[in-house]
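FIELD: query
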Amino acid sequence: MKASQFSDAQKAFIIKQGEDGTSVAEICRKAGISQATYFNWKKKYSGMMPSDMKRLRELEQENARLKKIVADLSLDKEMLQDIVRRKI
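FIELD: result
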């Protein structure tokens, strides 16, 4: 996944402009983003401070890492159970 060229503070500022009443089209034109990007950010980060955004990103990365570990361990367990079944 490509890293965003916008910092968490910039994303928060862009979302805040929309909440203050500026039109979405104008915000997107000034920021150089699509309206879809704006609405995705709004859905994901609305009401968050930049520190909250950073924490959310860290938790998502940790969650992905833990899911990978669980998948690897489940596969190992399945292989070992298969070996035990063959020997019996």
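FIELD: remark
The CA atoms of residues 14 and 34 lie 12 Å apart.
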